[in-house]
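Quick illustration, no need to memorize.
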Amino acid sequence: MRRTGYEPTQARSPLRLRFGLAVCGLVWGIAAAVGFAFFGQPGWAAFCAAIAALAAADCVVVVRHMRQGPHYQPGRDVPPYEPVRERDRTRRRR
């Protein structure tokens, strides 16, 4: 079965971008938590520490997905869906 032409042939996963954003969130969360703790704002420090913890968990998940590789992606000859036939299009318009 041929590809329909609507899907990208060389699509790339945004995992590196997501990892970079998670690292930025981790760094800023830790820095903000330390800063707020230094200036005596424990509530804000805890909030920023929670954000840093979420960013660290996201980093772990993204690294895990990056190490798994593309094993879950179909090959070039497998389309992501069944192409719509002309007969099906006319039936839906009625």
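The chain is about 65% helix and 0% strand.
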